[in-house]
Amino acid sequence: MSKIQIEQLSKRFVKRDKYIEALKDITLTIKQGEFVCLLGPSGCGKTTLLRILANLEKPSTGDVIINQTDKKKPLQSMVFQENGVIPWLTVEENVAFGLKMRHLSNDFVKERTEYYLQKVGLSKFRRLYPKELSGGMKQRVSIARAFANDPEILLMDEPFAALDEQNKFILQEELLAIWQETRKTVLFITHSIDEALLLSDRILLMSAQPGKIIKDVAIEMNRPRSIEKVRSDPEMTKIFLDIWEQLQSEVKQTRLK
Amino acid sequence: MSKIQIEQLSKRFVKRDKYIEALKDITLTIKQGEFVCLLGPSGCGKTTLLRILANLEKPSTGDVIINQTDKKKPLQSMVFQENGVIPWLTVEENVAFGLKMRHLSNDFVKERTEYYLQKVGLSKFRRLYPKELSGGMKQRVSIARAFANDPEILLMDEPFAALDEQNKFILQEELLAIWQETRKTVLFITHSIDEALLLSDRILLMSAQPGKIIKDVAIEMNRPRSIEKVRSDPEMTKIFLDIWEQLQSEVKQTRLK
Amino acid sequence: QSSESDENDNAKSTDPLAPLEETAKVVIAEDGSASGAGFYIAKDKGYFEKYNIEVEFATFGNSDEMLPAVAAGEVDVAGGISSASFFNSIAQGIDVRFIADKGHNNEGSSYFTFVVREDLKDDITDYEDVKGKKIAVSTQNAVDHYIYNEMLKHANVSTEEVEFVLMSDFGNMMSAMGNQQIDLALQIEPLITQGENQAIHQRFLDATDYAPEAQIAMVLGSPKFLTERRDVAVRFMAAYLQGVRDYHDVFIKDIDDNGEVISIMANHTALKDEDLWKEVGVTGLNPNGYIFEDDVEKQYQFYKENGAIQGELDFDTIIDMSLVEEALDIIGTYEE
Amino acid sequence: MFKKLKTQSLPQLITISSPIFLLLLWEICSQYALLDPRFFPAPTLILTTLIQMAESGNLFEHIYISLTRIILGFALGVIPAICIGLLMGMYKYFRHFFSPIIMIFMPIPTLAMLPIILILFGIGEFSKMITIAISVFFPVAINTAAGVANIDRIYLDVAKNYHANAKDFFFKIALPGSLPVMLEGIQMGQAIALLTIVAAEMIGATSGIGYLIWMNYKAFLLPQMYVGLILISFFGYFFSLLLRGFERKLLPWK
Amino acid sequence: MFKKLKTQSLPQLITISSPIFLLLLWEICSQYALLDPRFFPAPTLILTTLIQMAESGNLFEHIYISLTRIILGFALGVIPAICIGLLMGMYKYFRHFFSPIIMIFMPIPTLAMLPIILILFGIGEFSKMITIAISVFFPVAINTAAGVANIDRIYLDVAKNYHANAKDFFFKIALPGSLPVMLEGIQMGQAIALLTIVAAEMIGATSGIGYLIWMNYKAFLLPQMYVGLILISFFGYFFSLLLRGFERKLLPWK
Ligand SMILES: Nc1ncnc2c1ncn2[C@@H]1O[C@H](COP(=O)(O)OP(=O)(O)OP(=O)(O)O)[C@@H](O)[C@H]1O
Ligand SMILES: Nc1ncnc2c1ncn2[C@@H]1O[C@H](COP(=O)(O)OP(=O)(O)OP(=O)(O)O)[C@@H](O)[C@H]1O
Ligand SMILES: [Mg+2]
Ligand SMILES: [Mg+2]
Asked: Are the beta carbons of C188 and C180 closer than 8 angstroms?
């Protein structure tokens, strides 16, 4: 069953008298429960695509359809790159933010918040403000907030880019654990091929500006995965080198312009 | 010939009435022309060690000796993690900063600056201010500034941490190219094992707080290296997994505390 | 001190009014009011210049603000009113003196008198009507307050039966009238005439009814000016009195001078409309310079009773007519 | 740039000693008439005067009255300033409408506004509060608008992404997000309120600290005038500290 | 939050129309005596007065004199403020010494300072400039100190790492790094300089815009007073723009 359907989508920005063609002719179907990673050179329009799905930006042409199965659930929730955690709300209030905005019953909000605080291991820090948290903890808050909102799809824009490699891996494991439980449809942007290999069912590779989907690779490795397994698997190394090469050539193309 | 000699170094910080033991009993020798990567969990004291070498911090006990071979050259120059580029100076002025501070002749400053601007491919952008540069370009300025100063040793504190993976690799290649030409002694901090494998002659692994050197691995792969080669080499994969495991256990130890 | 200066003067009396050998500068503090007529006329008609005196005006918000400047020797001469602060500063050792008249009310056409709000002019017609009214006065424990007090005494109304409103500025009284915040005000020319023309207020009887000899403003001299620069001071006073006499000729004796004095007045004060000068109640200025000494002493007693005076002072040193007398010796007494 | 334990009390020592040093200098200069003591009475004399005035009792009345005017006038300026500032920050048409008006009125000195205030608001307590309110209004309105405008775009996106309605957006994002810059404006407004009290108490006042200052100046009772100045200075310091404390309470997340 | 091409002229339209709207409202209210025209003369009347005053010639003299006082007074306040502010920002002992003094003197109203200024500096041009200088001093000094203190530590480390000497440190790091915040303070100082001109021209002035305002008010020549107010407002706006332009030149890196 297709959850997200994108057809002939394109997006142009007007900057003074100049047009910037950010996305061009994107056609794409994502199935219910799929974890999809979007890879591409910087400035190719990944964020733009996600923002269109999140209804924060309007497409210039084409259609985006998200299949709603439960009218009571919100369509989508987004995990932002960094700083997405609101600094004047405590950890608890941040996690409860989406639920509060939907004006759900207090008990329900409390119970959900509690549950996801537990999940990301922040119960002890519920009363702290974001300034007192490390980068990794902040992203945990962001993830908990999105999951607590229980949306139909989850959109994540490089949530771990600002973390160091070791912390990144811990959070990846945690994300996978929560995801495995809920089996939400996830669209995840990253620059890291290793991250994509570890997390996704499917990797979409975008071209340099204007962004088009130029490669669609299914990752069939068994779950649960780990860095060790990914690294030791020769099949995975092959996929890595393959994507690497293609990405490198796209990046170089951008630099020549 | 040993270039850097560290003996029984330890460093304590006073924070109100509490002592923080950042470094403990570090003894270490780095040879002339060696490229050494320092790996370790967050907060283990890597930056502190570098700052002591850079004379920005005093050790609590122990000695640090940097072997000076040329009295006219500065002892060390540092490449900072990010934001190390001074925003009110142009690209050119930033690269010339170290030379200007040493009040060298204008012609010489100009020639050196020109040379390194060329090296990092920023000649066209010389008159721009840092705000107009991308993250990668800023780090190029930072690297050019350090090399232009022509110090005995180079200290780099996660210079590529804030860059995306593709840009990171491009800069790594550029760094290696410049380094191969000058053969400076480099001490390079990173969180990325891949980065360490690609760049270094030797990887030092630090323990969680208080920081001690717990592993010293020589990387004997031939140069010039590339990601593809590193990834395809089973020996390298072995070293990766080895360090990964040890690092992971150090990181987990930090989390338990 | 005055005897000393007499001696000084005698020594030079061979040619008392020759111009000074070197141009002397005299700084006069003013607040831009019409009572400075003597200064303005003497300057513009060249009486000061005749004695080789160069005068410069410095304008202040009100006479109290001039005192520190006089005391500090920043200005030589100031126009001031008698007020508690004046007496207090003398008690503090600031040796300023009253040296000549600079304003009293002319009978029946006072330049400093009460006005009543336009819409109340039919209700408040006589003194007893002020009972229960709001009356604006521009200073506390100064001549305004004294005249206010005299008016109430004359009206047989106690201070508790009216509301005293302190208002720092005569302009503010106009605004407060327009806004019906006050009923009466102790106002000054040319604002009295201006307010009448703009239907803001009307004259309320006349201050000479109850304070005929009120000494409203005086010329103040700085101690340095009066002693160390005596020869300048004498010439200054002579020139000043000549200016005052021209003023008196025009406004009191109605001698026509082709509008010269009026144009000087219009030039130096805020009342630019020369025709209006024929309407206003002009400031009374004694052409012989003398002041109502008894009234000044009465005012002093009034402030003292109000507890506004700190310390005792010798009244004789405050009013110093020696300069006027010296000048009169030379230029002669003006005959009415 | 190095901090040692034993030197940590030195800064405090300097901080305390500098006003004391100044006072001592003044005292000596005044006692030995290096400064004219008629105009600069010695601090000890001022202190004696202060005590006398406090004992006679009506000093506290002056303080009470001025503080009432300052606090109410401050509130009267701050509340509309915050409302208009928020509207300006949130809706660009409001911003475009109000900013030229603010630009025009801001440079007009309070002293020059007095006649107009008097005409419009009379001479009662209200006009004094309005005087203070007007002078407080501008910095607070400007800072509030700047505060809203400077909220990081990402929080607006978060709010939108989680379907915050207008009310929630206002109370959960716009208001708390603009608070830090707004409080800077309020801190400035507080300073200005104190600076304005003398001007405000020039319209038909018969009491208050401002009245104390200029009345005593007019009466040439300088020690009493200095008492007034010291009171203003003290309350300036006190309010600053108070607002700083308030700020820390209000912005636990900063 | 969406921007379309055709709407881009609307904000400008609003910005221009709001003062015009206000003027029209005033004109109508004044013409039909909804506002007392004796106290609020119609804008057209004020304009006529302005033209008359300009033709008679001495309006420009008033402007010239006030601008000279404002600019020199401003410079007289800003220069020491920057020096002390920089010292306070760079050396903590200076900071600890000066900050209580600044805290004490800042809340004292200019109006209350006038007598002291008069005694110390007389009644000449200099005392007027000093009045302005004092009021300008505080915000500039405070902002300069804050500017230096807020320079990102990493630039200090960079300077140290590259062995900058004291002079280079000052000119390459401390000064340019503190400039943005310092300029904010200067912008504030400029606003305050204009606000202070009326007070400054109350001591012994015989000309100037401030003098024009309060002299004409004393004489109850309100249209002339409003001309003065309009001039102040105009110059406030003008100086703001000037400083903004200057800022853009001085901070190309912002
Ligand atoms: N609001 C906007 N106005 C104008 N141009 C925009 C806007 N948002 C994005 N762009 C442009 O659209 C292109 C795609 O931007 P986008 O942020 O989607 O790239 P990205 O793939 O997310 O890059 P990165 O990997 O660096 O995050 C870029 O050239 C960018 O400059
Ligand atoms: N100036 C200081 N005062 C007090 N404690 C400090 C100071 N600088 C560092 N520390 C402490 O010393 C320890 C080591 O810090 P350091 O910055 O060297 O770690 P790091 O290895 O560079 O970490 P990261 O990988 O996150 O950069 C940390 O616990 C830190 O809190
Ligand atoms: Mg992006
Ligand atoms: Mg570090």
From this structure: no
The whole-chain average pLDDT of chain D stands at 87
CB neighbour class for E246 (10 Å; exposed up to 12, middle 13-18, buried from 19)? middle
Rounded mean pLDDT of B201-227? 92
3-class DSSP string for B116-180: HHHHCCCHHHCCCCHHHCCHHHHHHHHHHHHHHCCCCEEEEECCCCCCCHHHHHHHHHHHHHHHH
Burial of C311 (0-12, 13-18, 19+ CB in 10 A): exposed
For chain D, the structural domain boundaries read: 60-250
Domain D60-250, CATH class in plain words: mainly alpha
Residue nearest to atom 18 of ligand 2 (CA): B45
Contact D142, D78 (CB under 8 A): no
> Could you list which residues have their CB under 5 Å from ion ligand 3?
A 47
State residue B40's pLDDT score. Answer: 92
Query: B164 with B198: CB under 8 angstroms?
Result: no
**Burial (CB count within 10 angstroms: exposed 0-12, middle 13-18, buried 19+), residue D123:** buried
CA–CA distance, E168 with E104 (Å, rounded to integer): 34
Domains annotated for chain A, with CATH where assigned, are: 2-67+153-174+183-256 (3.40.50.300), 76-150 (no CATH)
- Give which of D148, D154, D161 to mutate to test A binding, by max A Cβ within 10 Å: D161
Find the angle CA(B15)-CA(B16)-CA(B21) to the nearest 5 degrees: 30
Q: Any idea of the CA torsion for D222, D228, D230, D233, to the nearest 10 degrees?
A: -140
> What are residue A206's DSSP bridge partners?
A213
Mean pLDDT of C16-25: 82
For chain E, list residues whose CB is within 8 angstroms of any CB belonging to chain C: 36, 38-39, 114-115, 118-119, 122-123, 202-206, 211, 214-221
How high is the ipTM of this complex? 0.83
Question: What does DSSP say about strands A153-157 and A185-189: parallel, antiparallel, or unpaired?
Answer: parallel
Q: Say whether C142 sits in a helix, a strand or coil.
A: strand
Specify the DSSP element, H or E, that contains A202.
strand A202-206
Distance between CA E233 and CA E223 in Å, rounded? 15
Strand, coil or helix: C34: helix
Q: Is A13 in the pocket of ligand 1 (CB under 6 A)?
A: yes
Give the Cα-Cα-Cα angle D31, D34, D36 (nearest 5 degrees). Answer: 80
Count of CB atoms situated within 10 Å of the CB of E104: 18
Rounded CA-CA distance D99/A126 in Å is: 41
